[in-house]
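Repro case for the chain-ordering regression, as requested:
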Amino acid sequence: MRWAERITAIVLLALSAFWIQLAVDLPFPAFARVAKMGPGHYPIAVAGLLAILAVWMLWQTFRSKKHADSAEDEEEQSLDSRGFRQLIIGFGFFLAYVILVPLIGFVMASIVFVFCFIRLIGKFNYWLSGALALGIPVLLWTVFAYLLTVPLPKGPFGF
Amino acid sequence: MGMLQNLAMGFGIALSPLNLFWIVLGQLVGVSVGILPGINASMAVAILLPLTFGMTPVSSLLLLAGIYMGTMFGGSITSILLRVPGTSTAAVVALDGYEMTRKGRAGLALGITAIGSWIAGTFSVMVLMSIGPWLSSVALAFGPPEYFALIFLGLTMITSLGGGSLVKGLIAGAFGLLLGTIGMDPGAGISRFTFGILGLDNGISFIAVLIGMFAVSQSLMNLERHFSHLFYKGKMTGLLPNWNDFKESFGSIIRGSVLGTFIGMLPGAGATASAFMSYSLEARISKNPEQVGKGDISCVAGPGSADNSAAGGALVPLLSLGIPGSETTAVLLGALMIHGIRPGPLLFSQHTSLVWALIASLYLANCLGLILATIGIKPLTQILRLPTPIMSAFILVMSVVGAYSISNSMIEVWIVVIFGVIGYLMKRLDIPVAPVILALVLGPMAEKSFRQALFMSDGNVIIFFTRPITVTMLILSGISLFLPFILSRFKPRILPQPKQPDES
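-- result from build under test --
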């Protein structure tokens, strides 16, 4: 946990620095100069605040050693290897699904995703997985594409 | 028009068959969502929001308000029966509620929570009715400096949303402010931090961030857990309290209602805080201190009422000032904005029928909750049988289709994926996600009013220190930064650490 917090703090510091650098380069149109505050000032203030808070968190990880260690133990307990594997596989499916949607259409991609997800993560039998893989996308397609007329991405088969 | 006439008009709209259907549906969805661990009100509203795009503003608000009120009670059901709080607000009801179940008084615990919720909800709606229009008429006189101070006050109250660590709550808030700087700047119309992506010019889509942070991240959290299925097998008798039980808990219900309403009105404090404070109050003044933590009915009735009245109280600043006080009201703000309605002081005068229909529907939702509780608790707990993987698959597909329908493009879907991962990492690191949402909504509003104020004063910041209302609110902001320290003093030792408001 402590290491994760340190890495987060450093990532946030880098993000703040990046934001400030972009904000400094923003133009400051003449008509807005009355207020003496341009487009870049507020983002610089916010990024500065984030940087200060990140340093505060970093400092805390070094200060409260004992407390952080006990939190680390809890953390280890809650994420075991099986849970981690499930998480990675599940997220992998989801990522693949989002990539597939514009390529093969919403309905096809959803059928594949729901089937893999329920069969491989939920360990349900083929029948139930298949029924849900057809049912959920068709239900959502009916609601969104048919009733709400959202032009959902279509695949090579026209749906 | 007087208040009663307005209310009658509101009931007239809310009682039309179609609108009544939406309220009932919302209530049913809300109670189900409250029962299911792993889904909370914000998440349900976030993924259902795209469904309301095609509805009229009134219908969609009634549906969302029904969900909002239903969740509060639904969470208590599983807390009491199974010691599995469906929502974080109900965590504290589990303490004495489950003990009552173990003593065979499950029905009574549920009954008193239902009645308490009803009384509390009614009380908070009455407060909303009387304070809301008054507050909005006061706020009509607000200029940009006052608005800035008010929003700033709301932002500082984010600190109390954090639950555990102050610095983490603040980091989440600052991150939300940073995200809020993406898009066109409010003073000069310059594109900022859009990286050439056209879809980002109007700012990062708030709904997409919401779906990612609440729905997708929670589904990822659920993936790593192994759920064991729990069912309530005992008998459920004696749902209605007898006169003695009612007499014993009536004081707690009233105290919970008042406390909840006023804490709910404070931006940032919310339902969870009010339930915890009500519990600690009841535990302190209990006539049978030895019963506290072992099934004391007042310790169930108080917090069970407080969370419902806080839900109503949180609508006061939202409807009259346009400032959301909790993450769920931030979602409702998003819903209003999607339908082209800008909450704020003008809402009560410009959208009179909408506001009063909403108020009437909250009251109806409350009564429906009581009816549902008396006839449907046992069948409703069967919802727990729905296996998590099926639910997760459904939520993920729904997130994708919902995000896509925001602007019919994949950009929003990718925002959902990215913020799903960020939200997951934040939850793993115990950084609360609710402040991100609040800051993302309030940040651009704060910058806009700050810069408008500076335009008024030719760039002189003294304008914020010469107006009495502004100064008062800035002083209050200073105090509220230290609110978490004050609140922590009220927490009795027997309480578990409060969970994050977004967690279930």
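Ordering looks correct now. Chain A touches chain B through 73 residues (CB under 8 Å).
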